[in-house]
Amino acid sequence: MNNDIKIALLGNPNSGKTSVFNFLTGTNQIVANYPGVTVEKKEGFFNYNGYNINVIDLPGIYSFTAYSLDERVVQQYILNEKPDFLINVIDAGNLERNLYLTVQLIELGIPFIIDLNMYDMLEERKTRVDLEKFKEIFKTEIITTIGNKGTGIDDLKKAIIEFSLRKQNPGKINIRYNERILSSKRKIEDFLAENLDSGISVSTDWLSLKLLERDPYQMDYIASISKDSKKFADYMENLHNEFFSLYHERPEIAVANARYAFIAGAYHSFASSSGELEMTISDKIDHVVTHSALGVVILFIVLFTAYKLVFDLGEYPSELIQKAFNLIGDMIPRIISNDFLQSLIKDGVIAGMGGVLGFVPIIFLMFVFIAILEDSGYMARIAFLFDSLLRKFGLHGSSIISIIISGGITGGCAVPGVLATRIMRSDKERLATIAILPFFSCGAKLPVYAVIISAFFENQRALILIILTVLSWIIALSASLLIRKTILKGPSETFVIELPSYHIPTFRSVMQRTWLRTWMYIKKAGTIILLINIILWFLMRYPDLGKDRKEYYNSMRNNVSHVDEIKKLDNLEAQERLENSIAGRIGKFMVHAGRYIGSDFRMNIALIGGLAAKELILSTLSTAYSLGETDDESSIAEVFKDPMNGWNRLKAFSVLIFIMLYAPCFATLIIILKETGLRWMLFTFAYTTTIAYIISLMVYQGGLLLKSIF
Amino acid sequence: MRPNHASANNEFNKPLIPLSELKEGDLFIIREFRGCNRFAYRLISMGLYAGVPLIVMKKSFSGRMIIKSGVNSIGLGCGEISKIWVEKI
Q: What's the pLDDT tens digit per position in B7-24?
């Protein structure tokens, strides 16, 4: 007896499908992407009465016709992977609209159970449902659940086993399509019978309907197995044009209207509702939170509070993790005596791991915040609020979330910012959003700003920070506009968004979602970032100083006795080693390019170090200025102030702008690589650095010009 | 979908106006979708099909709108609302 059952959960967005999935599978979940796309694939497992059940949580869709990426992924999965049956999760509070997808499952002929979820909403909506009648009409099992509380999940598990044992075939339901549709369907069926090279795996009845709806996935599939794909395309084009000219209606719209006519008839026979078009609490809240001015103020208060909490609460455990790794690093010389291995493990491996895991508390809290925004229904309102502004720059309303997370109002992190773009549907808008995130001032850039600002602009701290923030927005939005007008040319995604009723998120759902996303980050970032850190360590360490130079420093140390003098010699040796390393040589090689923006070779080396993590700019600078391994802000600021080092306010401001805009850190680049691919990562690296250079060049050279005039 | 020159509903001879001309609290019925078919299909699959009664819940200065059908609230961008032709009820 086969005890393995494979099922998939399918339903509209906001139908509570993921809550049901979480209660069914608990923590036994795997999150990955569907092959070749960035649509999240969630798979889970559970055992019940000796049965092993494998569950897939499919993306939420409104229709089974594959116009959007999500719809295409769902159709591909159901047709190719062939689960034993589906669980169609329906939002009881929005029953009529949800049945549009159910009707299409009936047309497909795949067996399914209906999970009438959020059953408690029926009372709130003043709707009565005769479940027996409902079952009779849709000819399948119906289970009621309240997904976010876990109510009815056991019944659903039992129903899954029973349904699997019965191997119940879907009941036949006759949706009365009019003669216009039926005659067009017949024509398509006749054409297919004569013009296909091979057999088809789905029923011609369903296929002809999908072709009449111009389902892109099925159109491509049939074109690929047609004897003459051009003939097929021409035939379909003529058929659609003929339908439109005869009936003044597109066939896909006619089919959809016929389905709704069936649903309306069925719905009114098993359900009665009152209170339609009533002003609900959600509507009242929406009046305030979607207000053009008030809504923006509320949003900034919410984001600022959340963002303060994330960084204030996350900072302490992050520091603890870093300190723990530093402690482990300090123990290495006592365990390993070989210089090379010691440095590799301490500065490469352990520092790299600390860099990845040190982010985890902040990323975890950021994901908690995103999950709360999503589950409460507020996320959709944020997108609605900002869409008209951001659309002017080729972005989407949802881009605002990633921008704020990445440091849109200073301090943040681009790593969770890039991950947060996953909620966006349009690839072009998503890529454009990802490309501009490095321009914003993440938390790691702030200490660097603080040092330079305190050295040169002590009395204008706030003004300089405001100028930098405004500048980052101007450059980011202009860059997005440029990208969307050139390499990512194309119309913006239409802005149609469902605004679900507000809900109080449940702890379990928020935590489950947060944990899965955080674990994905650790797995993804951990491996590659570690490798990159080791490479960077190598670049900044090798080639090592020659034997004669080492001997020179050793003999000098033997000649001095004071601890401070020995430390001074250590720092000088470290400075020479850095200057001699590959990174140091690159820094010197770039000295000509750097000169035009006011940078010197020491700053160039620090900027290379900043690729590993922006905060490393300070510690690399301190080594380059022979201060030793410190990121003490005041001592570095003193170095800047020293006229001997050749820095001035203009150079400092130009370099500040370069630091704000140039290539993101490797952690961000790796996440961009994982989310978008190598080309977009390389593009982001190259274009951000180019823009940083051009803007800094304009500032520095413009400043010099003004200086010479006045 | 009908050709763009249509401005009156032939069946009832009531004037059709773009959704963008309605104000908050107005009740209406969708009669036509103009523009890309996928946009029309998406709205229909979200429950906004021709003939269903709706209400304008919110209209912002920039033209964005929240419309509601039954329990279903949908936010529409300003570009989208000019493509939906409706009959005020």
A: 444 455 678 899 999 999
